[in-house]
Design brief:
GO terms for molecular function: hydrolase activity. This protein has 328 residues and is mostly helical. 68% of the residues lie in helices and 0% in strands.
């Protein structure tokens, strides 16, 4: 199947980006952080924990569904990269051409941004960015006007996709595919979650809006299933890096589904006194999962625990209070 996407798939964009001023490339190296996986999941977790009814009729259901949609997007990316197994542009390989005017403190950061290994199609940043910002625009439907949300989401997604081409870690074809896959997985995830706008149901007109009855569990499970397929393809192809990514996808999908079973869906925002230590714990688990990526079972356990904790956290204060009352 590798032949379906050519290794040399550039459309002339390399010559264009190489003619850009260095300051433009450096600026886009910063823009690309807007779709780093750690940034997107932190953004989505904060929205899930703290959003109020001012931004969504059912903020917990909306937030969990956004996380599930992005999990599906990354699962699709893992499958695509393992399936097509085509390289990145030559510019993603060392040595990096670091601008001489950059301060020493930023040189290492810049080099880390413009060097990237692994396969190139589709772009994970373009896929994740499109999925995350589109999901937020659709699900947090009381924040700003519809047009403003959609324009903002599209602008950020396109900016991130452009950044991946400008810093030469992806071809244009890679990011266009990523944008399409990201948007498509959001549509599928919302359909599975029961979004009446996607299913064209009259219940979209309820007072609580289209997020009132969302159930993200099926979307989380789909992510786990697709990631399992990605794992099988990666193992068959001997792609070690993609094996780890697929394993993390399985753990994230399964952890999300388990965590949601502990939540009613109508919980209030998480108190800051609970969120701060929870963020430290879950962040530590995430870091540990990636640091120990060479030990797949440990990575799977740490990732699953982190995701269960993130998704189940809104239910924790009420359960602790109920347990305290029972003891008294």
């Amino acid at each position: 199947m590798t032949g379906l996407v050519a290794a040399e798939r550039g459309l002339g964009e390399t010559a264009f980006v190489e003619a850009l001023p260095e300051v433009v490339v450096v600026a886009f190296a910063a823009v690309t952080h807007l779709a780093d996986p750690w940034f997107l999941f932190a953004l989505l977790a904060v929205g899930y924990w703290f959003a109020s009814e001012r931004v969504a009729g059912s903020p917990r259901r909306a937030g969990a569904t956004a996380i599930a949609a992005v999990t599906c997007a990354y699962a699709a990316t893992a499958l695509g990269k393992a399936w097509f197994a085509v390289p990145r542009p030559p510019g993603a390989m060392p040595p990096a051409d670091v601008p001489t005017w950059l301060p020493a403190l930023l040189s290492g950061w810049y080099e880390a941004q413009v060097l990237s290994d692994g396969f190139g199609f589709p772009s994970g940043h373009a896929t994740g960015g499109a999925a995350a910002y589109l999901a937020v625009a659709l699900l947090y439907d009381r924040f700003w006007a519809d047009r403003a949300r959609y324009l903002a989401a599209g602008a950020v997604a396109v900016a991130v996709a452009t950044s991946r081409v400008v810093i030469e870690v992806h071809y244009l074809v890679d990011v266009l595919a990523g944008l399409a896959v990201g948007a498509g997985t959001v549509a599928v995830a919302l359909w599975l979650a029961g979004d009446p706008r996607v299913r064209r149901s009259a219940s979209a007109e309820t007072a609580a809006g289209p997020t009132a009855a969302l159930n993200p569990a099926p979307a989380f499970l789909l992510a786990a299933v697709v990631s399992t397929g990605a794992l099988a393809v990666a193992v068959a192809g001997g792609h070690t890096g993609e094996v780890v990514e697929a394993g993390i996808g399985i753990a994230t999908g399964a952890g999300g589904a388990v965590g949601w079973r502990l939540v009613e869906g109508d919980e209030p925002a998480v108190p800051v006194r609970v969120a701060v230590p929870a963020l430290a714990v879950t962040g530590g688990l995430w870091v540990g999962a990636y640091a120990l990526a060479g030990t797949l079972p440990v990575t799977l356990v740490a990732t699953t625990a982190a995701v269960v904790a993130v998704v189940a956290l809104p239910a924790l204060p009420e359960r602790v209070e109920a347990l305290s009352d029972a003891r008294n």
